[in-house]
Design goal:
Low-confidence stretches: 101-112
Strand content: 5-15%
Strand order of the largest sheet: 1-5-6
Structural class: alpha/beta
Number of helices: 9
Domain ATPase AAA-type core: 22-207
GO molecular function, one term: ATP binding
Largest sheet: 3 strands, parallel
Distance between the termini: 70 Å
Protein name: AAA family ATPase
Shape: elongated
InterPro entries: ATPase_AAA_core (IPR003959), Bact_Antivir_Def_Nuclease (IPR051396), P-loop_NTPase (IPR027417)
């Protein structure tokens, strides 16, 4: 497969009212809207999942109560594999639910609105109720798994081993820093034969990528030498790759001024500066502790 996920990754309510009359099983659907903005509205996944789940439920009702649609099993397995490393987060049982009117049930051409429901930590949620980060990840994982299942019919869960080139703009979008550090390994583990080309400004993402896989663009040109990134702390990556200091400039200047006073043994003035910094940064800041230690040493 070949697919490009843009930055405006959201799930639109329009998916629940989409008319699927024109839906057909076709391997070319693996590339449908793979490079336009429509990829981000979740409609194609919703319609596909709805049709496949209807088929699964029909077989379970009429023939085999234990039947599981192999295509949907690929989606379920992708969610399970991808999120297994995420702390305190367990998603399962993605399904379509129809909202029935309390007054009557209408079996006409216009059914009640449908919703995608998922169980998170043993509690059911409409996908629209999830955080932006959760929705973003689920959209990426389920849509990519769907495309691989369509492109590799008959393989079931093994469709996740399919090949592809996946472009993701700002892969860290809406993600908690802890999740940013996990997202790249989770993608490569879940889709081992896909090549991922992603953009990011996140030091947490970069800390999980080896130098040979990192390319820096500056003024639309490729920077020749890339510093090491894998396993490095966030401050080092920010400074070495993006020329961002660990602290705001005005705070660093105050810290430098305090240590200059200590070097000159103007300890009374240094204590005043140090207290001002402690009020801003807290008593447990590493530079506050270091300055206090030096002052105590010099006054003994």
């Amino acid at each position: 497969v070949l697919v490009y996920y843009r930055t405006n990754r959201i799930i639109l309510n329009s998916a629940s009212t989409y008319d699927d009359d024109e839906y057909e099983i076709n391997q070319l659907n693996a590339y449908r809207r793979s490079f336009n903005r429509g990829i981000n509205d979740f409609v194609d996944f919703f319609v596909w999942f709805r049709v496949e789940e209807d088929y699964e439920n029909e077989i379970r009702l009429r023939q085999d109560n234990n039947y599981r649609n192999p295509k949907l099993e690929a989606i379920r397995k992708a969610i399970e594999n991808f999120l297994e490393g995420f702390p305190n987060t367990h998603f399962s049982d993605l399904r379509v639910v129809r909202k029935q009117s309390q007054k009557n049930i209408d079996f006409t051409r216009n059914p009640s609105p449908l919703s995608l429901i998922i169980t998170k930590n043993d509690q059911d949620f409409n996908l629209e109720q999830l955080s932006e980060g959760e929705k973003t990840l689920l959209m990426l994982v389920t849509d990519l798994a769907r495309r691989l299942a369509i492109a590799n019919p008959g393989l079931g869960v093994d469709a996740l081993q399919g090949e592809g080139i996946v472009l993701i703009d700002e892969i860290d979008l809406h993600l908690h820093p802890q999740w940013q550090r996990i997202v790249i390994p989770s993608f490569t583990r879940t889709f081992p034969n896909c090549h991922f080309i992603v953009t990011t400004h996140s030091p947490q993402v970069l800390s999980q990528v080896k130098r040979e896989n990192v390319f820096i663009l500056e003024d639309y040109k490729l920077v020749e030498v890339t510093p090491h990134t894998y396993g490095k702390d966030s401050n080092s990556i920010l400074y070495e790759l993006m020329a961002v200091n660990a602290r705001p400039k005005e705070i660093q200047e105050k810290i430098d001024a305090c240590f200059n006073l200590i070097d000159e043994e103007k300890l009374a003035e240094a204590k005043v500066k140090l207290q001002e910094l402690a009020d801003l940064l807290g008593e447990d800041d590493t530079e506050i502790i270091r300055a206090k230690t030096l002052i105590n040493f010099l006054t003994e």
